[in-house]
Design a protein that fits this description.
The chain is built from six helices and 14 strands. By secondary structure, the protein is an alpha/beta fold. The chain has two domains: 124 residues, Beta Barrel (Elongation Factor Tu (Ef-tu), domain 3), CATH 2.40.30.10; 146 residues, Nucleotide-binding domain of ferredoxin-NADP reductase (FNR) module (Rossmann fold), CATH 3.40.50. Strands 4-3-9-1-2-6-5 form a seven-stranded antiparallel sheet. Strands 12-11-10-13-14 form a five-stranded parallel sheet. A two-stranded antiparallel sheet has the order 7-8. The longest helix is centred in the last third of the chain and has 14 residues. The model has no long low-confidence stretch (mean pLDDT 90).
Length: 285
C-alpha cells in the first residue's frame, strides 16, 4: 500500500508536550523522543500501529501537504487527561548523487524543529503490522535497526508495564552505526534499562565495527553470539519474529540467520513457514 492510498480525511490536532534529543548534542546524529497530546479525548490506538503526520506545504508538484507514517513508540495521559503518543524521530537528509546537494527530509526535519506547545496535524492510526500474540507464554524475537526500535519500545512497555509481565522469552536485537544511535539504550537515554531486571527480557546491541567508513551494522556478530538460542527460538512453534527498520535490515538479518542455521534452504523454509503461520512480521521503510 502506497502513502497516496491512505485515507487522510479524519484529521486531528495535537500539541507538543515535549521534544527531547536522545543523542548527545555534540554528535551529528540527532534522534528525538517527541510526546504529542492529541486534542481528541476519544482517540485510541493499539500497540503496533502507526500514526500519520501531515507536513504542511506547499510541496513539490503542488502538494498541499505531505504524509509520513511513524510507528507509535508508546503512550500515556496528559495532566488534562488527553491521550499522549510518543514518536522516535531521526533528523534525516540525503545527498543527491547527481548534483551533490544536500536535501533535508521533509517530515523528520519538520518534527525535529517543533517546540513545546507547537501544534501538528495527525491522521490515523494506521496499520498494525505488529500484533502481539494473546498467549503470554509466546516467545517474542524483535530485531530493529535505528528508529525501528520504536514499535518494540511500545511492546516492551506494554507487556511489562500494562500487562504486568510476560511468561515467554522476550529478546531484542537493536542495531545502529554507533552506540550513541542506540535509541533508548545509550548513555543519553537508557529508557529500556528499567526492564533489564525482568526475568524473561534480554537486549543485545549490534554496532558497526567501523562506522566512519560506513561499514554495515554487525547484526550477524550480535546474533551468532547467541546462535543456539536464536535457532531454538526459530524452531519453537510459540515464537513470533518482528523485524523493523531501514530496508538494509532484511539483507543483514538474512545473512546472520543463514550463518546461524547453517543452510540457506533450511532458513528460507523456516522463515516461509513462520510467515504462513502469521508468526513473522516485517515493517521495512
Amino acid at each position: 500500500m502506497q502513502l497516496k492510498d491512505y485515507d487522510t480525511t479524519r484529521q486531528m490536532s495535537a500539541s507538543v508536550v515535549s521534544s527531547t534529543r536522545i543523542t548527545p548534542e555534540n554528535t551529528e546524529t540527532e534522534i528525538r523522543h517527541i510526546d504529542l497530546a492529541v486534542d481528541s479525548f476519544d482517540f485510541s490506538y493499539q500497540v503496533g500501529q502507526s500514526i500519520g503526520v501531515l507536513v504542511p506545504g506547499p510541496h513539490a508538484f503542488g502538494q498541499k501537504e505531505y504524509l509520513r507514517l511513524y510507528s507509535i513508540a508508546g503512550g500515556s495521559t496528559a495532566d488534562d487527561f488527553k491521550p499522549v503518543i510518543s514518536l522516535c524521530v531521526k533528523r534525516c537528509f540525503y545527498i543527491d548523487d547527481y548534483n551533490g546537494e544536500r536535501y533535508e527530509g521533509k517530515a523528520s526535519n519538520y518534527l525535529c524543529d517543533l517546540k513545546k506547545g507547537d501544534t501538528v496535524t495527525l491522521v490515523g492510526p494506521y496499520l498494525r503490522a505488529f500484533t502481539l500474540p494473546q498467549e503470554k507464554d509466546a516467545n517474542l524475537l524483535m530485531i530493529g535497526l535505528g528508529t525501528g526500535i520504536a514499535p518494540f519500545r511500545a511492546f516492551i512497555k506494554h507487556i511489562y508495564g500494562e500487562l504486568g509481565g510476560w511468561e515467554g522469552d522476550v529478546r531484542l536485537y537493536h542495531g545502529a552505526m554507533t552506540g550513541i544511535e542506540l535509541a533508548y539504550m545509550n548513555d543519553q537515554n537508557a529508557d529500556l534499562k528499567y526492564y533489564y531486571d525482568e526475568d524473561t527480557f534480554k537486549a543485545f546491541q549490534a554496532l558497526s565495527p567501523r562506522a566512519h567508513f560506513d561499514v554495515p551494522v554487525d547484526l550477524e556478530g550480535a546474533m551468532t553470539q547467541n546462535a543456539d538460542e536464536v535457532w531454538a527460538l526459530l524452531q519453537d512453534p510459540k515464537t513470533y519474529v518482528y523485524v523493523a527498520g531501514l530496508k538494509q535490515i532484511s539483507e543483514l538479518l538474512d545473512e546472520a540467520m543463514v550463518k546461524i542455521v547453517g543452510s540457506p534452504e533450511t532458513y528460507e523454509q523456516q522463515k516461509a513457514k513462520m510467515f504462513d503461520e502469521g508468526r513473522w512480521a516485517e515493517l521495512i521503510y
